[in-house]
C-alpha cells in the first residue's frame, strides 16, 4: 500500500514570541569519558538555571546545548 501524500494550501506559523524579552542561551559541555560522573548533574543544573530565568524574567528563552566529543 502506497502512502497518501498530504498537501497544504497554507500552514500557519506559530507565534515567535510570547513575551517582550527574549534570551538566546547556549551551554557547551565536555562529554568525554572523564566527565561521565558530572554530566547528569550538569544537565540537572542547566534545567534549573533555565527554569529560574524564565520564572524570574518572564521571557522567552531559545536554548542550545552542545557536547564536545
TrEMBL record:
* UniProt-recorded name of the protein: VWFA domain-containing protein
> Which organism was this protein described from?
Dreissena polymorpha (Zebra mussel)
Q: InterPro entries from the entry?
A: vWFA_dom_sf
What domain of life does the native source organism fall in?
Answer: Eukaryota
